[in-house]
């Protein structure tokens, strides 16, 4: 009867802790991985922008099917940029895979996958990011970040500093969450052995038997009763210690208390991050386009100057003569561009007044830079804003950014088609900038859609009588 009481107590503790994980622990773990991904992507985007790393040419060819860490083998100094570029790209791809293709459930996150996640989180020594670190990947990344900080770019340095702080915090929380999950998996595994294997041993094992002999018996029955599952002799040995060792009752008591700790904390801490956090992350992702907008605008200015300096045809000379004869404020130069309208599935034309458009980009980039400046007033206002204010701000600027992207794309194509002859090799394309802007817009929209989904779910639960609103 005493053994049955022990098993019943363990079973209840394991079941209660599983409920905690499913309702609170695992959603919180996924949220921290999401924050980690956002912060890391911000740092990688700046490194790409500053040409300290480059895009991984094989990124789209790689197919990820399981959690793993990028390579950590040594590399030559001459290979540093290429190796760091590939490794950071692989690290980001793994975070994306974890968030979008992995299930945050106790069934999917097995002991093996927990170890893989811990290894990934410790791939870079974020707490000891130093240019003298013995790990080559950590050292190479620290050197790149050091170059930015010494370069006098206070905005980039501030963004990187804030992102590093967030990465370290998220990794600590992720590791704590994985430790709790590992505790559950370990005790759930041992409970399964108690329930499915020990009763088939043919009675209570002889206390005088050698531990190794009993473990051999357990392994044999385990293979028959739990086929396909890995056998961990150290965990089976813990069961024998808990049941037979003099300190067994104390061990069992500590296990039950350990599993109950998180359940106690659950009632006094929020179960999920506030919904507004998804909107703020969407705004941070959107604002990261600031540097790409500035770079694209500068390249288009250069192309505009190139086009204006070419030998003017007779008609353009006549227009210049008219403006000379009738002085006044000159009309802005406009370019007719084409774009594809997805709402009508047809090509359309648009006249873009070049200088006003470039000035509008400058203003928007300044706003986005202010958002990213953690010490700025606009950043603080966004931190303090409610969901309605955040939604309105995000919708307004995402709408404007979509138009800006369309016009940038149109002008890029216009200059490439129009500038010919000896000037053609001098054209500055903005494909890299357009890709980066598009990626950040996609991330922002993903966050916005997730917010909408969570909001709808919360409203439905409220209607059903669950939750306070």
Written description of the protein model:
The structure is a single chain. Helices cover 69% and strands 3% of the residues. The chain is mostly helical and 469 residues long. The chain folds into two domains: 2-269, no CATH class; 277-463, no CATH class. Helix 10 packs antiparallel against helix 12 (354-372). The longest helix is centred in the N-terminal third of the chain and has 48 residues, at 2-49. The protein is elongated.
Descriptive labels:
469 residues; 2 strands; single chain; mainly alpha; 2 domains; two-stranded antiparallel ribbon
Helix content: 55-70%
Order of helices and strands: HHHHHHHHHHHEEHHHH
How many strand units? 2
Estimate the mean pLDDT confidence: 85
The helix tally amounts to: 15
Low-confidence stretches: 262-271
The neighbouring-strand order within the major sheet is: 1-2
Radius of gyration from the CA trace?
30 Å
- What is the general shape? elongated
Approximate strand percentage: under 5%
What class would the helix/strand composition place it in?
mainly alpha
Largest sheet: 2 strands, antiparallel
| Tally of domains | 2
The N- and C-terminal alpha carbons lie at a distance of 46 Å
């Amino acid at each position: 009867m005493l053994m049955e009481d022990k098993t019943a107590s363990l079973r209840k503790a394991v079941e209660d802790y599983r409920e905690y994980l499913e309702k609170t622990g695992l959603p919180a773990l996924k949220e921290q991985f999401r924050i980690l991904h956002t912060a890391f992507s911000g740092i990688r985007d700046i490194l790409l922008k500053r040409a300290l790393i480059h895009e991984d040419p094989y990124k789209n060819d790689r197919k990820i099917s399981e959690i793993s860490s990028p390579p950590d083998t040594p590399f030559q100094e001459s290979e540093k940029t290429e190796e760091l570029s590939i490794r950071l790209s692989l690290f980001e791809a793994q975070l994306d895979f974890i968030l979008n293709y992995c299930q945050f459930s106790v069934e999917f996150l097995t002991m093996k996958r927990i170890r893989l996640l811990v290894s990934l989180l410790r791939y870079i020594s974020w707490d000891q990011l130093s240019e003298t670190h013995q790990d080559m990947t950590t050292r190479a990344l620290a050197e790149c970040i050091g170059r930015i900080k010494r370069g006098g770019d206070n905005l980039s340095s501030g963004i990187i500093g804030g992102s590093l702080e967030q990465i370290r915090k998220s990794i600590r929380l992720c590791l704590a969450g994985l430790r709790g999950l590992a505790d559950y998996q370990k005790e759930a595994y041992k409970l399964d052995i108690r329930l499915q294997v020990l009763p088939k041993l043919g009675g209570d094992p002889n206390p005088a038997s050698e531990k190794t002999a009993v473990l051999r018996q357990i392994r044999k029955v385990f293979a028959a009763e739990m086929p396909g599952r890995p056998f961990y002799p150290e965990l089976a040995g813990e069961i024998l210690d808990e049941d037979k060792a003099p300190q067994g009752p104390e061990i069992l008591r500590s296990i039950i208390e350990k599993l109950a700790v998180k359940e106690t904390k659950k009632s006094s801490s929020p179960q999920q991050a506030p919904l507004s956090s998804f909107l703020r992350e969407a705004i941070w992702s959107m604002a990261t386009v600031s540097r790409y907008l500035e770079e694209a605008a500068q390249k288009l200015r250069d192309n505009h100057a190139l086009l204006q300096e070419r030998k003017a045809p007779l008609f353009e000379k006549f227009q210049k003569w008219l403006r000379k004869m009738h002085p006044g404020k000159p009309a802005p130069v406009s370019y007719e561009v084409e774009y594809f309208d997805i709402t009508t599935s047809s090509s359309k034309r648009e006249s873009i007044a070049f200088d006003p458009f470039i000035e509008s980009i400058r203003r928007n980039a300044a706003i986005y830079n202010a958002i990213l400046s953690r010490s700025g007033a606009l950043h603080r206002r966004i931190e303090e804003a409610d969901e309605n204010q955040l939604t309105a701000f995000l919708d307004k600027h995402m709408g404007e950014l979509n138009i800006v992207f369309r016009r940038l794309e149109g002008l890029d194509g216009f200059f490439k088609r129009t500038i010919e002859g000896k000037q053609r090799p001098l054209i500055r394309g903005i494909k890299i900038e357009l890709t980066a802007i598009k990626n950040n817009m996609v991330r922002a929209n993903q966050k916005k859609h997730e917010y909408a989904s969570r909001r709808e779910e919360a409203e439905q639960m409220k209607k059903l009588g669950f939750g306070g609103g």
